[in-house]
Amino acid sequence: MIYLELVPRNLEQLCTDSKLYLDSFSDLTGINIPDIKRLPIRSTKAANALLEHQMTVIPHIRTQDAALDDHLSMISRLYQHGLRHVLLISGDPDDTTMSYDVTPPILTKHLKQSFSDLIIYCGIDPYRQSFDEECRYTYEKLAAGADGLFSQPFFDVSLLETFLKSFSSTQFFCGISPVTSQRSLEYWQTINRVCFPQSFDLSLAYNVSLAKDLLACSQHYNQHAYLMPIRTPVKEYLKSVFT
């Protein structure tokens, strides 16, 4: 399976673009929707719009943004409209709004009790902390009932292979994102603590080649991926990756 991540800036455009990409590229399974607090359209609203068009969608749910009962009510409404996949993340700390003591393991456990056929993914980040610490937290999510993992983007095939070997018994979606500007590179280094390999190149050609290598590695381990072309023309990027 390969998902495409699209930022929901305009609902009508999101639905149009999602249908276009899904119809044009048979390798794509569905749409992955990030939840960005500064945007007026949150992931749940975007997911509802795509569900109305019978598209497979995975909204990101920031667990710390709401009380447990509110999460359950909101997901129940989406479930009634056909939602069958969610991705639970803690969400970055935000001093401007109230946060709740709801973690991905806690919400996973309660969702599994309420919606037995809901596929729940949780996040995994190869860069934010040590490998052992990230594995420990990830195993906690899996023990709570998570069906699989969505990773932050990888920029190194050998690092991806290390994680795929460690989580071979669960569904693993490798994040893939082109980085084609110095500003973007510095963002990933500063905010996401990414350590890029010395050979990393900002050219689109290099990023397309890296995407193909990461996809091949995932497929070799019978795993999955999602594409996250944040500031890259999407159709152009998909054409290059899938040819």
In round numbers, the mean pLDDT is 94
Outline type: globular
The tally of strands reads 8
* Shape-level CATH architecture: Alpha-Beta Barrel
Structural class assignment: alpha/beta
Question: What is the end-to-end distance?
Answer: 17 Å
Count of spatially separate domains: 1
In short:
It is built from nine helices and eight strands. It has 243 residues and is an alpha/beta fold.
Tell me what you see in this structure.
- It is a single chain.
- The chain has a single domain (2-241), classed as TIM Barrel, CATH 3.20.20.220.
- The model has no long low-confidence stretch (mean pLDDT 94).
- The two termini are 17 Å apart.
- It is globular and about 45 Å long.
- It contains nine helices and eight strands.
- Helix 6 (157-166) runs parallel beside helix 8.
- 44% of the residues lie in helices and 17% in strands.
- The longest helix has 17 residues, at 204-220.
